[in-house]
Amino acid sequence: MYNDNPTLEGIRQIDEQRQGEVYFQQMPEEQATGAARHFYIESYGCQMNFSDSEIVASILAKAGFRPTRQLAQADLILINTCSIREKAEETVRKRLRLFDRIKQQRPGTLVGVLGCMAERLKAKLLEEEKLVDLVVGPDAYRDLPKLVATAEEGGKGVNVFLSREETYADISPMRLDSNGVTAFISIMRGCDNMCSFCVVPFTRGRERSRDPFTIVAEATELFERGYRDVTLLGQNVDSYKWQHPETGQWVNFAQLLEMVAQIHPDLRVRFSTSHPKDITDEVLYTMARYENICKYIHLPVQSGNSRILKLMNRTYDREWYMERVEAIRRILPECAISTDVIAGFCTETEEAHRDTLSLMEWANFSMAYMFYYSERPGTLAARKLKDNVPLEVKKRRLQEIIELQTRKSLEHNLADVGKVFKVLIEGNSRRSDQHFKGRNSQNKMLVFPKEEGLNPGDYVWVQVDEATSATLLGHIVDAPQEEMHK
Ligand code: SAH
Ligand code: SF4
Ligand code: F3S
C-alpha cells in the first residue's frame, strides 16, 4: 500500500485514513502515571513502514515514552518516511515544515525522521532541514532511546547503519491504530533484487529472513488476543529462506505459510508482496490445501512489454508472467490477483505501453496500484538510462491504464453479484454505523447491514447484491449447507 499517488481512489482512501493520523494504544497502568514524555508518530509509504512504526512504538514504550494522538502534547515528533517516488518525499518535506512551526511554539520538542528518506539522505537531512534533530534508518530503531538522549543534550542523533542481521524478531510490536481484528507481521527485511527503477535496496539494505518460530509465536499471540487475520509482509515474500542455526534445516516461504496456517482454522493468513520470478507452484499448492490461506495474490507486473521488463531488470518477461498467472488460475481457480504498474519507464514507446494495456485486459486483475515513473537518484535506471518519456505522456498513459483498470475492477466485482462469500467482520463501514465492513478471502471489501449479536472478529456469510469498482454491497445469509456440517 503506497500513499503518495493522488490519482487513485483506493490510495486516496488510505491517504485519508492514514495521513496525519497518530497512533495510540492504552498503556499499562503503572506506566500511565508520572510526567512521562510523549511521542507522536506518523507513517508514510508501504505497509512495512506502518509495521516498523509499531516496532518503534514498542521500543519507545520500553524506554518510558507514551504514545499520543495529539501533536501539541508531543515531546518527540517522529515521521516514518518513504522515498519510493519523488511525491512521497515532497509530502514529508511539507510535514516537516509544519512540525517546525510547532517546535518554534514549543521549544525543546524534538523532531525525528525515520525510515527510507532518513536512509537515503542521511546526515544531509540534518544540514538541509535545520528543523530535524534525529535521523534514524530502518535498521537502527533499537538505538532510538539513546539517540533521543543525544539530541536532548544538543548532539546529533544520527544512525543510518544498515544491518545484515536485524529483523527485530524478539520485539513484540505495539499495535497502533488497530481494529483488533487484522494485523501485519514482518517476516523479512530488505531486498536483494535490483529492479532498475527502485530505491528500496538502497534504503532497506540486504534481504534477511526472520526466525519462523518468532513469526508463529507472534501470530499465535495475536490470535489469542482476538485477531483473526494476519498479513505476512516482505518486499519479496517468495524468497523467504531461513536456516535453523543448530539443525541446519531450511524453511522456505511455502513451509512458513503452512506453519502459520496451522495455528488455527479461524486465523486467516495473507501475504504481500509476491515477485513473479519467485512465486512457486509449491506456494500455490499450499494455498490450495488450507481454506484459511486467503485466495489472493498481489503480483506486481510493472510492464507488459518484455523489452521494458528487461530494462527494469525484473528478470522475467511477458510470457513468464502470463504462465505464472495461468498456474494460479489452474491451481487456485477462485484466486484474485492484483498488481502494480509503472507507466512511462525509460524508452517506453506507444507500442510498449499498449502491451501493458493488453496484458491488463488479459490478466483480469481485481485491483491495481498504478504510478507513472519517477526517477530516483542512485538507482540503476538513474545512472544508466534516460528518463526520456515526457511528463504529459507519462500522465496520459497512466490515465489510460487507470481507466482500463477501473473498468476491469468493476467487471470483476459485477461477476460476484449473486455469490455468497465468507466474510470476516472488521468494523463499522466508513459511511454508516448501521453497516459492517469486512473482506472475503479474495481481499474484496464487502459492506452489509448489521445484525444483532455480531461483532468485529466474527465470520459471516454474505450474499452480494450490488457492486461498484471498489466495493461489494450485500446482506448476511445462512451458512451454506456444506459449512453447517463441518
Ligand atoms: N517489492 C515490491 C514493490 C515495492 S515498491 C515488488 O517488487 O513488487 C511498490 C511499487 O512502487 C512497485 O511495485 C512499483 O510499481 C512502484 N515503484 C517503485 N519504484 C518506482 C519509481 N521509481 N517510480 C514509479 N513507481 C515506482
Ligand atoms: Fe524494489 Fe524490485 Fe525489490 Fe520490489 S523486488 S523492492 S521493486 S528492487
Ligand atoms: Fe517506501 Fe521504503 Fe516502503 S521507499 S515503499 S517506505 S520500503
**Any idea what the CATH architecture of the largest domain is?**
Alpha-Beta Horseshoe
Number of domains: 3
What is the CATH homology-level superfamily of the largest domain?
A: tm_1862 like domain
**DSSP strand (E) fraction?**
15-25%
Q: Over all CA atoms, what is the radius of gyration?
A: 23 Å
The whole-number mean of residue pLDDT values reads: 91
Helical coverage, percent range: 25-40%
Supply the number of helical segments. Answer: 17
Bound molecules: S-adenosyl-L-homocysteine, iron/sulfur cluster, FE3-S4 cluster
Major pleated sheet? 6 strands, parallel
Choose one word for the global shape.
globular
Highest-level CATH class of the largest domain = Alpha Beta
Query: Which structural category do the helix and sheet elements fall into?
Result: alpha/beta
> Which residues form runs of ≥5 with pLDDT under 50?
1-33
Distance between the termini: 36 Å
Classify the fold: give the CATH topology of the largest domain. pyruvate-formate lyase- activating enzyme
Number of strands: 21
Spatial arrangement of strands, main beta sheet? 2-1-3-4-5-6
Quick structural gist:
With 486 residues, the chain is an alpha/beta fold.
Explain the overall architecture.
By secondary structure, this protein is an alpha/beta fold. Helices cover about 35% and strands about 20% of the residues. It has 3 domains: about 150 residues, 3-Layer(aba) Sandwich (Rossmann fold); about 230 residues, tm_1862 like domain (pyruvate-formate lyase- activating enzyme, Alpha-Beta Horseshoe); about 60 residues, OB fold (Dihydrolipoamide Acetyltransferase, E2P) (Beta Barrel), CATH 2.40.50. The strands form 6 sheets. Strands 2-1-3-4-5-6 form a 6-stranded parallel sheet, with helices on both faces. The structure holds S-adenosyl-L-homocysteine, iron/sulfur cluster and FE3-S4 cluster. S-adenosyl-L-homocysteine binds next to β15.
